[in-house]
Amino acid sequence: MIRITRKVEFSASHFYHNPELSAEENLRIFGKCNNPRGHGHNYTLEVTVAGEPDPVTGMILDLKELKEILNREVMDRMDHRHLNYEVPELAGKIPTCENIAGVIWKLLEPKITQGRLDRVRLYESPDLFADCTAAPAGAPAGKSA
Amino acid sequence: MNAASPLEFAITRRYRFAASHRLHSPRLSEEENRRVYGKCANPHGHGHNYVVEVTFAGPLDSRTGMVASVADLDRFIGREVLEPFDRKYLNEEVAEFQRAVPTTENLCREIFRRVARFSQARLDRVRVEETASNSFECSREGERIPS
After folding, report:
1. Model pTM score
2. How many CB pairs under 8 A join A and B?
3. What is the distance between the terminal CA atoms of chain B, rounded to a whole angstrom?
4. Which ipTM score applies to this complex?
5. Distance in angstroms (rounded) separating the CA atoms of residues A109 and B4
């Protein structure tokens, strides 16, 4: 099996707040990210697809096609958007790295028909990133995004 | 793999500290120390800009949408790793390295032992970069975790 990874970058704003928690709890758990005016990041998204190369083309999937899928599914939805207000798939979720990565997984997985989606890695900054992967068969299910 | 596959999440956070150390084992002769550790045995010590990368895995907390609170993790790492190690001479100022040689293998394992006490998620891996060229990893499978 071979894995290929495509990287794209987008910029977006967000903030973290759970209305079911007190102001003090929101501030403790989310820190500066709780600022209701929001703040932004340059996100880096790495999408990894795994599979066997096609015997004729030598490719798992055409990277140009993956680029188009990422443009359509991720960039058009999230680039230069406010993630709390403008991305319907994130409505009702706190737009953490984990939740955004989970939403991206769910958007991409059905679109990738050659090879299979192996990992979504989303960097909020060079110092923080989340990985989203499929649980191994038979593993107890984690709470999905 | 169908669209309903349950998903797994992990977060990785990077931190930095600067410290000095000297590689020297009291169980070796001076000549052997020089042979084994080379420049790193210089009796005055030398320093590095260390980078520490910690990876936690687990289900998402439904209240926060996170594997663990990054703000809580930052406070924990600050208290348990950065404050005790940053701008310190590891050999003399960290109790564990009065017993063990502060190689980055041993440093990585000591950081894993400390960080594994963070209770909000499962620590999977600690990776320490001693320089941009040399990095060291300690993962859960290889370590005995105190429960």
Report:
1. 0.90
2. 107
3. 34
4. 0.88
5. 10
